[in-house]
Every structure is written in structure tokens, then in C-alpha cells.
Amino acid sequence: MEHIKLTIDTDGIAFITWDVIDSPVNIMNEDTVAEFFTKVEEAVANKAVKGVVINSAKNDFIAGGDLKWFLNYDKSKRDCFDMLMDTHQKMRKMETCGKPFVAAINGLALGGGCEIALACHHRIMISNPKNKIGLVECSVGLFPGAGGTQRFLRTLGIQKTIEYITQSKKLTAEQALKDGIVHQVCTPDEEINNLAKEWILAQKEIIKQPWDVKRFQVSGTPVGIGQISGVNEFFSVSNAMAYKTTHGNMPHIKNVLSAIYHGASCDIDNGLEIETRYFVNTLFTKETKNIIRSSFVFIGDASKGKAKPKGYSKASYQKIGVLGAGMMGAGIAYVTAKAGIDVVLKDVTVASAEKGKEYAQKIEEKKLLKKRTTPEKKAAILSKIQPTDTVDQLKDCDLIIEAVFENEQLKNTVTKETEAVLRENVIYASNTSTIPITTLAKASKKPEKYIGLHFFSPVDKMPLVEVIVGEETSDETLAAAIDYVTKIKKVPIVVNDGRGFFTSRVFGKFVNEGISMLAEGVPPAVIENTAKKIGMPVGPLAISDEVNLQLMLDIMGEDPNLSSFEEELKNTIATIVSTHKRTGKKEGKGFYEYPENEKKYIWKEWDNIYPVQSDYNEEEIGKRLLFAMVIDAYKCLETGVIRKPQDADVGSILGLGFPIYTGGVLSYIDYIGADNFANYSEQLYQKHGDRFNLPETLKVKIKEANGGRIFYNVNHSKKEVVC
To answer: What number of H helices and E strands is found in the chain?
Structure first.
């Protein structure tokens, strides 16, 4: 198969055209990279060739490297080093052969695609808001390994290189032109290949890269990076900021900063070798493997609707009804309208429904100010949301999503009222976060058409949706619901019915453990800071304030099956609410104080209520917070609440903010080692109680694994995931 074509026109211009077979995008892997360099060698060796244009026959230039190639890389570090150094040598041949190379960039040029473009002497990019160029590898736990760190460094200077690479910035053609990443921008109407050819034919002297000109120096390093006051300080600050954000849990960030720092003080060839050494070290870390596997393989599969039952055609939606125009309902209406679907947004009054529509208007106005949309696009979205207080307006809807207050009686009333005007086959979904779907479906005339769609707040930003299947929910309903979720560009995971479903239930263990430790005398600041150090986005006490302690108490009061630990915790929360009058952020008084126009701070009286114990262990605090979630997630898998371990990992990363470097809530067991997990769990069980006692089936799996992995084999399917 020929993925890359070489043609030479009558003027001696060679065109190396990427057109990877059986792939919607051009991806870089072992086969396509080898073929590319073969074509480069042919063009360079041909005396008739005056210059080379690298272009694409697809809508995008080159989307990047195949992540599954990296994920499944099973050779040694030495082999990987040699492979990358060979790549560098061949790209340097492009730069130093004496023939001009031009990148004709259409669509996306990301990751490895951007790196190939950077090795060209001239880069032309088509202007279009969707066209982007950038080194985005840090978003997948890697960093540029085909010269990107060193060529960016020599193009942009130190500060922008660090900013753009660590933040995985994607630049428009105009931004890239301003920064010197591209040299020329053309309109979609212009023939980019002709422009590239004209540039080559206009060259009268042998073309060189700036970094191959004698006495070239990286911007800001005129004497040598080790002696410059200000440069070392800048890197020190960058390292400190990176550690503050990652707490040392993300090796790729530390390594890319090192590659940039050391590469800045030497020539390009030594810089490329430095980059290679740090890249190889990064690729072989378990953190990088975890991030690639869970964040992009598993989340990528979920976002494509891989959980959809087989045998059902794709459901289409023209009009959706949303019941309740509060924050959740307004958010659901907005993302639905944004996907091009008409929405009837119903509330008890037109004014309330209009207020829900205003939520969409405010989001779009902010985007307009940042030039991320146009007045026409904003108007088109808003025109799709129809506020109403009349149930009859729902009669033509293809799907109903109920998002009223979390009250079973109210939800039942709304269900009966709405179903009275609906067509026979319309699916009815509830956005409940706590009430079992099977229970709510009892109010429906057609429980087989009743399903849960649990969105997360804020809906426009949170990608996860739990698709909750009741006892009578049909596979046809499930399939259609997944089609809706993917249509609005959210990520669905399938969850079987149960109190708290999956995410709310598992996250509750994190919160419970934090409150319990406070009552034991662990300083609240230590609890909160340790949670962030292990990679959680927020501490358990802060999130409790967001949820509201009174609401947590009410939910616990409805559960007849509380464990002894949970009963004790319930009493603790009741005392905090009733005696100390602390309920949460909304009231301005929870675990934190929330003074007006000031930053929140932990209430200072906790030390008097729960005297601080001096024998707390920070490692144990972190392990308790994580192990509580991991063990309960396994119980969800064991009892069928969650169907696949992949769904647990996806749900925990997107819904709970579980540390991404671990791979997710169940991958965590393999991350720290199954035997280590079992041994530490036993210690926690002996010290803190039954909630840390592992289920027998998990103990058996750990024993049978004999030191190996519990949930996932190392190899994955060969379908590409690109960066």
C-alpha cells in the first residue's frame, strides 16, 4: 500500500503528498514515517529536483503520531533511542541537503505533523478558523520527540516555547504567522501548491535553516544559558509552577522542561539528542502509558458510542424537550441547541424558561467577545431554544429530558403530565443524580422507554454523561440514548441502576473519608492539600461545601443500608449542621468561610471542635482518599453497576477528576501494583475498618495475577489514535 506519493512536475518541483490509506486523517506510524523518508531520499537524490513541497491529499495536513503505536511499543529503550535519532538524522537531511523544502499546510498540523513542517525551510498555511498548528503532545502525557522542542525553541525563544508546548497550544494561521511558526498565509481560494512552487523557484541561493547559520543563538541566551542572570531564574520559576500544578505526578512536564533547558545552550544536533533522551525516558513511564490508554483510547472509544448495543440503526433527533430551566436544564438545552437540534425548554412560568435561555445567551456573548464565534452562529443557536410554560408544546418532541428538582414526587407528577401529550415511541429520560431509575420509571406508562441521562455541572463544560439503565429499560432505548449523547458531543458510559449510580456513589467515598479524617483530628488544610498533591482537582471538604452538607445529610437519611462507618459519619455531619450551623458555600458557612468579595478560607474553629492529632501520616491520608474510591469502584464492577472497567476509568477521570496519571479508578490498582494495593489495603482495614477490606473476588484476582496486571493487557487494537 502506498500511503505517500511522490510526483515531479516539468519545472523540477517534487510533491510529496500524504494520503494515508484507510484512515480519515494522515497519521505517523512505523510504516508511514518510513515511507515518507523514502520519498524524501528519492527527491533529494534526483538531480532534476529543484525543491520539494510536502502537502496532503486529505482535509488536514498531518494530524500527528499514532498514539497506539507508542502505547504498544514493545522494544527496548535503546531501540527507541536509535529509531528517534535516525528520524532526526533524516529530518536534518531535509534541512541541510541544499534543496528547499516547503510545507503546504491545510487543515490541522498537530504534534508530529507540526514537527515535519518545522523541518521545512518555508511554511505556508491556509487561513481558516478550523485550521490549527501546534505541538500538542503534552496533552497526552508525552512531549514532542521529532525535534519539536528544539525547533520551537529556536523559532520562538524560551518563554513561548515553554508556554506553547506545556499548554499544548493550537494556533490559527494568523497567530502562527505572527510568531514565525509559519512564513506565509493564504486564503482558501488561493492555490497553496502553486504558492509553494513559486517560492522555491524564486530562491537564488542555497537555503538554510536559521539555526544552521553560523553564530546562531537561541533568543535570550547570548552568552550561554548557565551564565545568564534571568534565564536560570525563569527556568526555576517554570519548574516551580509546573510542580505546583502537577505535584511531580506528571513526568512528561518535568522532562520537557529539562529538554528545553539543556537544549537551549547547545547546537541543534546536540539539542535533538537531548530531546531524544528525555523523550525515551518519558515514553517508558507508566504514567504516560496510563494517560494515553485511558484518556485517549478509552475516552476516544466511549465518545464514539462504542457502548451502543449492536443491531440498532442510528437515531435522529429534530426536537428535544427539556423540563426544568434551572442550571442543569438550561445547560442541557444549550448543548443540544449547539448540536443543531431544536429545544423546547419548559418551566412553570415563561419568565423562568426565558431565564434558562439567557444562560445560553450569556455563554455565547462571552465567546463572541473572545472572537470564538460570530453573531450569526450565536443567533442560530439561540433561535433553536423555545421557552414555554405549556406542556402541549412538547407533543412533537423526539426525546424528553427531565431536569426538575431532585424530588421523587415532583418528578413522578411531571412524568405523568408530560407523557399524556407525547407520541407513543418517545424516550423519556431523567437527569436525576440520586433516585434510582427503576423507581422513577414506575410513574411511566412505558418503563421500557424510560432511562437516566445524568449530566454533570456545568453541562457546557463537563463532557461525561452517565446513561443509566433501569430494570425495564430496553436495549433499543439505550441505543437511541447513546446516539443522542454522542450527537451533542458528550462522552457516554453505561451504568446499571443503583443508589448513587456510579460517579456519585464512588465520589461520595472520597468526601466521606475527608470528613471522617477531620473528625479524627487531621488538620483540614492537610486533608485538602494532600488531596491536591495526589492529583485530585479539589479537596473533599471544599466539594462538600459545594454539594451542601444538609443535602448530604438528607440523602444519607434516605438510605436504609448505611454501614456502621456511614452511620457514625452521618452523626458527625448532623452535629456540624445542627450544632455549629455549617451547611455549605451557598449559605457562606461550611468547612470554609466565604466572605463577600474575598477569597475563601478554612474556618478557624475546626481545631477547637476536633483537636488536632500530631500522629497523622500524609501518605496514609492520600491513600485513604484514593483507596476508598478504588475499592468501591471495584464493588460497582463486581455487582454489575458498572459494566466494564474501562467505563469506570472513563467515568472517574471525566466525572470525578480522578488523577489522570494513574489511568483511572481501576487502573490505579495496576499503577501501584496489585500486591502493593492488597498489602496497603490490609493495613488500612486493620487500622480504620471494614470499608478497606477487599472483596474476596478481588483478592483472588490479585493472587492469580501473580504480580501482573489485573484489568488490561498491554496491547490494544491497532486502530489509530493520533497526536
So the answer is: 30, 20
Using CA atoms, how far apart are residues 502 and 653, in angstroms rounded to an integer? 12
Taking Cα atoms as reference points, which of 272, 295, 237 lies closest to residue 664?
A: 295
Cβ contacts of residue 172 below 8 Å, gap of 6+? Answer: 127, 129, 131, 132
Give the alpha-carbon dihedral of 279, 285, 290, 295, to 10 degrees: -20
pLDDT digits (tens, 9 = 90+) for 548-601: 999 899 888 888 889 999 999 999 999 999 999 999 999 999 999 999 889 999
Q: Kind of pairing, strands 64-65 and 51-56? A: unpaired
Q: Where are the beta strands (DSSP E) in 162-309?
A: 184-186
Query: What are the backbone angles phi and psi of residue 639, rounded to the nearest 5°?
Result: -95, 0
The set of catalytic residues is 454
Identify the residue whose cell numbers are 443500608: 561
Pairing of strands 399-402, 464-469: unpaired
Cell of 624: 485513604
Please state, in angstroms and rounded to a whole number, the distance separating the CA atoms of residues 170 and 133: 5
Q: Grid coordinates standing for 95?
A: 534541512
Burial class of residue 212 (count of CB atoms within 10 Å of its CB; 0-12, 13-18, 19+) = middle
- List of residues 6+ apart from 181 with CB closer than 8 A: 118, 123, 133, 152, 155, 156, 171
pTM greater than 0.70: yes
122: β partners: 102
Q: In angstroms, rounded to a whole number, what is the distance separating the alpha carbons of residues 503 and 657?
A: 10
434: nearest Cα among 411, 461, 460: 411
The Cα-based distances of 391 to 111, 384, 405, 454 in angstroms read 50, 18, 17, 23
CA 191, CA 186: separation in Å to the nearest integer? 8
The alpha-helical segments, DSSP class H, found in 601-695 are 606-609, 618-639, 645-651, 667-672, 674-688
Model confidence pLDDT, tens digit, residues 467-492: 999 999 999 999 999 999 999 999 99
Grid coordinates of 18: 500524504
